[in-house]
Design a protein that fits this description.
about 210 residues; alpha+beta; Beta-clip-like; 2 domains; 3-stranded antiparallel beta sheet; 3 helices; 12 strands; zinc
């Protein structure tokens, strides 16, 4: 204590505790990379002060706007799994690796984008191009709308996941061509809509099941 001139263990009983000054909180790398027309919102607060975040538009974002590449650490296994986020993998040097983001200083803002649960709320499509993962808008995004993503058709096959059908999806995904299925259209028995592949028909029929 500078007032007593004594070295004490703990607080000075005469003059009390020191006034503690805290360092300024520095945003993480991921938060600093957020574009100025996007914002993070806390959607839920879980045990241990864990925040569930979502990415929202502050202004209109045009269709075919590309974001990326996704920043993460190449890993053979995930160290951090969140059921509300997409699991992403890339093919590099003949190997298949996860894009792992164990903390906010290992990734960019794209790690906060939540997955879309259905076609209606999907605003972004994720795809791999030249060993990187990008997100591209599939429709105009209005202000205060949350950005939500799902795999592009070809990337869904790579990830062994189901595809969510979005019209004109193929013109926003610069992916290598894949083997095409027969040209005869697949017809939905419920609404008579036609689809180029059986996989797209299956995804479409899931929407009918959800509504039922």
């Amino acid at each position: 204590c500078e007032d007593c001139g004594k070295s004490l263990i703990g607080e000075c009983k005469l003059h009390g505790p020191l006034i503690r000054a805290k360092d300024r909180v520095i945003p993480s790398r991921a938060r600093l990379t957020l574009p100025h027309y996007l914002t993070l919102r806390v959607l839920e607060l879980r045990a241990g002060n864990q925040q569930i975040l979502g990415v929202f538009a502050k202004k209109v974002i045009q269709k075919r706007t590309q974001f990326g590449p996704y920043v993460g650490q190449l890993s053979t296994k995930l160290t951090r799994y969140d059921e509300s986020r997409l699991v992403l993998q890339v093919l590099k040097d003949g190997g298949k690796y996860f894009l792992d983001t164990p903390n906010e200083d290992c990734g960019n803002w794209m790690m906060f984008v939540r997955l879309a649960r259905n076609q209606e709320e999907q605003t972004l499509v994720a795809y791999q191009h030249c060993g990187e993962v990008y997100f591209t808008t599939v429709k105009p995004i209005e202000p205060h709308t949350e950005l939500k993503v799902w795999y592009a058709a070809d990337y869904a096959k790579f990830m062994e996941a189901s595809a969510v059908f979005i019209k004109e999806e193929t013109d926003v995904c610069p992916l290598p061509s894949v083997a095409k299925e027969p040209l005869d259209p697949w017809i939905c028995s419920s609404c008579r809509s036609t689809f180029a592949t059986f996989a797209l028909l299956e995804s479409h029929q899931c929407i009918h099941k959800d509504r039922v």
